[in-house]
């Protein structure tokens, strides 16, 4: 008997619409708190930090653009940026091309297709550190399986991780293998979204397999390609784990990339402000590259 | 009759109870914090058992506080309730000495009537004293219970095949060392005398242990005494790099990139390692021995070493009892048992004469070399911006040893960069420089 007047009173106090709005905002609070604590605060705080000198212990001292000035005058920074660029230039297009090729193969109606798709996805869900250790063994100059195969067919051993001219490419091979599964899944989804009637029409017009690929498949999956280009580029400049495990940045700093440089300054040299400044420089570089990508994309990306 | 027996028994019972109460009241319990695990923990239990047999009125409660040892101690000291003693990692006692949390053992105990004689103090390896000091003040702020150093371990089977007697190896100088490495090399079969590690980044400190002693034995230094510039660009220090270059390319006795586990697989004959690896060496398929770092052009020999102290806190409940325990711990017979069970090197020379330890050395001949190495123990110079400096140096040496850069040019360029790094550091931290200089004056 008491419940009815209470319910009435509540309705009088807040309208239905307001009540839903308030409830909506209440439900959003955890997300807002999460974003504020784990995203916005670190972003803002690291920006402040990049203008400070802070060695983890002691005071934080305001130094203006001093960290940025020091970074730009350090030859090791430029070397690490060059190495990251080399990695990106080879890794991004190769990983996209190979993923598209594999996705096309996996888009056929053949037996055991689910097994193949799962097999390609296994590296994605494996721990980078664990599989990087396995690949280090595969690439071992003396006992590695890869060199064993090479010597069996009469070729010389290659210093996959010890030759400064080769080591970066070994890391790129690993990274392509590691990321292939996720790229293939995305391409598969895109391929399955291409309307079959387009291929039928092309076949009626006399288009061959290459023609169908060039004029139908490629344009139709171009938004996906663009997405992978952007994500690949961002990921490429952030490469760290596999290099840390496989080469440690060597030999002779041939694989020493920007994120290793940042890691060293943050955790080995205890210069948090400097490391934060490196992070911001990288954020700006990646932002500029993404903007350029988006400008250029108009010429090759086709939206339905 | 029955009444008399009952009364008699009651009297005995009361006396016994009284006696145990009195004895319990006289027992003092001292507390020690530590982070020992595995064999070292076993060694500690044995030590405490032995101690309590001799000192039944002192009970020792050893508290394992794990990786957070320093934080726990700091918290306890701040709260005014520290343990009576604590084992510390090498070099960590300085901060407690500076803040006045621990006793200057020399003043409080060692020089007193129940202290240690000059003879006993001189029985510790000289490097132990250096480690136990604070700011080079000549005092013992802790007593060292664990020591460690590095040595060149070699495959005795390969050495025998090369025509040497592994139990009577006459390899003393740099030249002899290079010739020895060359005689063990068979590049065609992928077998090398020595692995010259050219690690950079996080592993650069290992490389540093490898190279720095050679810089010293060449008569050079890593950093100048005024800590304003590096000294690894001196002709003597460059000689150390040249030595390894020659060892690889002239003598053909070394490799920069051996296969993984090369020493274990018999692909590399000589390998720099510490005594912590002895249990693994004992499981190898071949016999192993060890040799000291060779004597360089300066006529000297150096071994990078470290020592771990046990300290007594000023706010200890029972400082005298804690000292009694610590004194018992560093007695040669107890240190021998401790070293045997824990696997650490002994901190005193006379441990080598203890029968039990002699037996262990007979079974593991290489162990004696590690202990002997402590005679030549040395510590790294104070190096501002240590990681940066070592990274720059190792990067230069890596280029040189891979024949990608000229020795003089690469070392000079690295030195110039390091000098800038140091100058920047002192500009940012002038007070720290001033404090350090005061400390270094004590050293002189």
Write the layout of secondary structure elements.
The complex is a heterodimer of chains A (304) and B (444).
Chain A: H1 3-13, H2 16-49, E1 52-55, E2 57-62, H3 66-72, H4 75-106, H5 113-125, H6 128-138, H7 145-152, H8 167-192, H9 196-204, H10 209-220, H11 222-237, H12 241-246, H13 258-268, H14 272-297
Antiparallel strand pairs in A: 1-2
Helix pairs in contact in A: 2-14, 3-14, 4-8, 4-11, 4-13, 5-8, 11-14, 13-14
Chain B: H1 2-26, E1 28-34, H2 38-54, E2 58-64, H3 69-78, E3 85-87, H4 93-98, H5 105-110, H6 118-123, H7 126-132, E4 143-149, E5 151-155, H8 156-161, H9 174-183, E6 192-195, H10 204-217, H11 235-249, E7 254-255, E8 268-273, H12 278-281, E9 288-291, E10 303-312, H13 319-329, H14 332-342, H15 355-363, H16 365-373, E11 377-378, H17 386-401, H18 407-428, H19 430-443
Parallel strand pairs in B: 1-2, 1-3, 6-7, 6-8, 10-11
Antiparallel strand pairs in B: 3-10, 4-10, 5-8, 5-9
Helix pairs in contact in B: 2-14, 10-11, 10-17, 15-16, 17-18, 18-19
Describe the structure concisely for a colleague.
Chain A is mainly alpha-helical. Chain A has 2 domains: 15-67, no CATH class; 73-297, MetI-like fold, CATH 1.10.3720.10.
Task: Write up what this structure looks like.
The complex is a heterodimer of chains A (304) and B (444). Chain A is built from 14 helices and two strands; from the N terminus they run ααββαααααααααααα. Chain A has helices at 3-13, 16-49, 66-72, 75-106, 113-125, 128-138, 145-152, 167-192, 196-204, 209-220, 222-237, 241-246, 258-268, 272-297; strands at 52-55, 57-62. Chain A has a two-stranded antiparallel sheet with strand order 1-2. Chain B has two domains: 20-147 and 307-378, D-Maltodextrin-Binding Protein, domain 2; 151-304 and 380-443, D-Maltodextrin-Binding Protein, domain 2 (3-Layer(aba) Sandwich), CATH 3.40.190. Chain B has helices at residues 2-26, 38-54, 69-78, 93-98, 105-110, 118-123, 126-132, 156-161, 174-183, 204-217, 235-249, 278-281, 319-329, 332-342, 355-363, 365-373, 386-401, 407-428, 430-443; strands at 28-34, 58-64, 85-87, 143-149, 151-155, 192-195, 254-255, 268-273, 288-291, 303-312, 377-378. In chain B, helix 2 (38-54) runs antiparallel to helix 14 (332-342), helix 10 packs across helix 17 and helix 18 (407-428) packs across helix 19 (430-443). The model of chain B has no long low-confidence stretch (mean pLDDT 90). Classes of the chains: A mainly alpha (304), B alpha/beta (444). The A-B interface holds A 53, 61, 70, 137, 140-143, 159, 162, 164, 248-253, 260, 264, 268-269 and B 190, 198-203, 256-260, 267, 385, 387-388, 391, 395, 398-399, 402, 404, 424, 428.
């Amino acid at each position: 008997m008491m419940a009815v007047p209470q319910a009435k009173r509540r309705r009088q106090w807040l309208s239905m619409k307001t009540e839903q709005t308030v409830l909506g905002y209440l439900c959003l609070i955890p997300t807002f708190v999460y974003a504020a604590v784990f995203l916005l605060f670190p972003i803002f705080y690291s920006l402040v930090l990049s203008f400070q000198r802070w060695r983890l212990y002691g005071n934080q001292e305001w130094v203006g653009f001093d960290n940025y000035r020091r970074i730009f005058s350090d030859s090791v920074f430029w070397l690490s940026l060059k190495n990251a660029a080399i990695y990106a230039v080879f890794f991004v297009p190769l990983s996209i091309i190979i993923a598209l090729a594999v996705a096309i193969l996996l888009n056929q109606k053949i037996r055991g297709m689910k097994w193949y798709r799962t097999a390609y996805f296994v590296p994605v869900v494996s721990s980078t550190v664990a599989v990087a250790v396995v690949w280090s063994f595969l690439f071992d100059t003396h006992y590695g399986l890869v060199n064993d195969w090479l010597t069996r067919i009469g070729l010389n051993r290659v210093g996959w991780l010890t030759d400064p001219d080769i080591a970066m490419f070994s890391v790129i091979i690993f990274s392509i293998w590691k990321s292939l599964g996720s790229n293939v899944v995305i391409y598969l989804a895109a391929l399955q979204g291409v309307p079959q009637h387009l291929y039928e029409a092309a076949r009626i017009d006399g288009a061959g397999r290459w023609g169908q690929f060039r004029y139908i498949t490629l344009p139709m999956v171009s938004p996906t390609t663009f997405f992978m280009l952007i994500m690949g580029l961002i990921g490429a400049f952030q490469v760290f784990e596999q290099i840390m495990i496989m080469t440690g940045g060597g030999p002779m700093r041939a694989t020493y990339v920007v994120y290793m440089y940042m890691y060293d300054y943050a955790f080995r040299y205890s210069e948090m402000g400097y490391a934060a400044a490196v992070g911001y420089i990288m954020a700006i570089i990646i932002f500029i590259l993404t903007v350029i990508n988006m400008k250029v994309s108009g010429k090759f990306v086709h939206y339905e | 009759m029955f009444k008399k027996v009952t009364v008699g028994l009651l009297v005995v019972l009361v006396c016994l109870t009284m006696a145990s109460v009195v004895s319990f009241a006289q027992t003092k319990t001292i507390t020690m914090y530590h982070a020992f695990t595995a064999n070292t923990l076993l060694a500690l239990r044995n030590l405490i058992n032995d101690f309590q047999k001799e000192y039944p009125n002192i009970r020792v409660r050893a508290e394992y506080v794990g990786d957070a040892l320093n934080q726990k101690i700091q918290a306890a000291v701040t709260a005014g309730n520290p343990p009576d003693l604590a084992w510390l990692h090498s070099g960590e006692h300085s901060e407690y000495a500076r803040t006045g949390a621990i006793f200057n053992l020399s003043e409080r105990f060692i020089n007193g009537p129940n202290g240690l004689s000059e003879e006993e103090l001189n029985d510790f390896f000289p490097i132990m004293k250096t480690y136990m000091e604070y700011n080079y003040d000549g005092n013992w702020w802790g007593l060292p219970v664990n020591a460690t150093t590095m040595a060149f371990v070699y495959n005795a089977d390969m050495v025998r095949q090369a025509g040497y007697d592994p139990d009577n190896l006459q390899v003393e100088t740099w030249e002899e060392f290079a010739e020895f490495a060359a005689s063990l090399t068979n590049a065609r079969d992928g077998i090398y005398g020595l692995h010259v590690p050219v690690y950079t980044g996080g592993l650069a400190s290992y490389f540093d242990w490898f190279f720095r002693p050679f810089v010293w034995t060449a008569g050079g230094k890593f950093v100048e005494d005024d800590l304003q510039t590096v000294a690894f660009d001196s002709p003597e220090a460059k000689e150390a790099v040249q030595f390894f270059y020659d060892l690889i390319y002239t003598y053909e006795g070394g490799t920069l990139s051996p296969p993984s586990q090369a020493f274990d697989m018999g692909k590399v004959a000589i390998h720099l390692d510490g005594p912590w690896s002895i249990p693994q060496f004992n499981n190898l398929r071949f016999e192993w021995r060890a040799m000291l770092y060779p004597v360089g052009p300066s006529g000297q020999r150096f071994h990078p070493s470290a020592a771990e102290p046990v300290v007594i806190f000023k706010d200890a409940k029972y400082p005298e009892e804690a000292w009694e325990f610590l004194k018992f711990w560093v007695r040669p017979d107890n240190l021998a048992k401790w070293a045997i069970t824990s696997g650490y090197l002994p901190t005193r020379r006379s441990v080598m004469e203890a029968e039990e330890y002699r037996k262990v050395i007979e079974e593991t001949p290489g162990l004696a070399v590690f202990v002997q190495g402590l005679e030549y123990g040395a510590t790294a110079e104070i190096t501002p911006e240590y990681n940066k400096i070592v990274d720059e140096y190792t990067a230069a040496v890596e280029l040189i040893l891979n024949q990608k850069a000229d020795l003089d040019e690469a070392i000079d360029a690295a030195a110039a960069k390091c000098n800038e790094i140091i100058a920047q550091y002192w500009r940012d931290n002038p007070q720290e420089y001033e404090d350090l200089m005061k400390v270094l004056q004590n050293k002189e």
